[in-house]
Amino acid sequence: MKKNQLERAFKNVINKRADRPMLNCLHFDKDGSITATDSHVLLRLSHAHNLKTDFNLNLLSFTQDAGAYPETSKLIPETYESAFVLNQADIDDVLTFLKPLKGDSRVALALVSGGEFLLSNGASLIYPKFRNYIGETVSISFKATYLYNALAFFKDYMTPNEDLDFWYNGALRPLALKVRGATYLITPVRTY
Q1: What is the DSSP string of 135-160?
Q2: Structural domains in the chain?
Q3: Global model pTM greater than 0.70
Q4: Cα 44 vs. chain centroid, distance in angstroms?
């Protein structure tokens, strides 16, 4: 993955406002991981550095921040109720569907009859090429921008023909996208 692609992915995740300055930061953990979050999405790369120390790098000012970074490791699931995969080659179809959706546009992802997945923005539909489905049901809604940014990151991060794992633990828990030491969480939007 190119340096500018990784920088763009992290900048898409961090909080851009000054009201929570710690969420403007990348957290470098002594375990070798790097984490960014805005409390709605989270990107974590395991084994990304060998610095053996904890510190926070503010991506807006490019300064080190001595504050306490939020505890995020407990947010990343270790098990799942349902799981499915999307091949790297099929990500473009979903990105094409999501690209025109702006701002607070929402999308819903659900398992429909016949084992197919439906991705909908309320008017348009796409049947992503998800496969290897394990579990009971899937029904989750979230901001289209969050899914677009996550898939754009993985499109750059993954090798050809690699599978992207989706872990689902209920409509009120974050959707986890995972591959080779990279985890991207997307917080759902409640629907009534």
Answers
A1: SS--EEEEEHHHHHHHHHHHHHHSPT
A2: 3-75 (no CATH), 82-186 (3.10.150.10)
A3: yes
A4: 9
